[in-house]
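The protein record reproduced below.
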Amino acid sequence: MSHVRRCSRTACRQPAVFTLTYVYADSTAVLGPLAAYVEPHCYDLCAVHADRLTAPRGWDVVRLPVETSGGGPGSDDLEALADAVREAARPPSRAVPPDAVGEGTETLRRGHLRVVRSDPGRGDQDSRPRG
């Protein structure tokens, strides 16, 4: 399911490992690690094209350092993410106070509807008019 981003250069099918951004106000080309998201006006480059990069006359090239520590999230990051997903998927616990008045016993549930029987010890205290 993972989509590998390719080099932006025409006819290059290599995976992208760098992102090139132009800062026109400063006449600077910034080459850094592959951006997390595709950004407009940025170019993803493979290692070969990043090494061959030259800037127009009068422009500077800034090459940002690239992390070489595994290239992905660590196992601790993945475990923390999995724990957060499990916690979010867990149904909320319902704490019912012991002296809840008017609470019955849930006997059946379908979707958002439920059948509730009144407590047998309370008797029939239904205040609806009968008729």
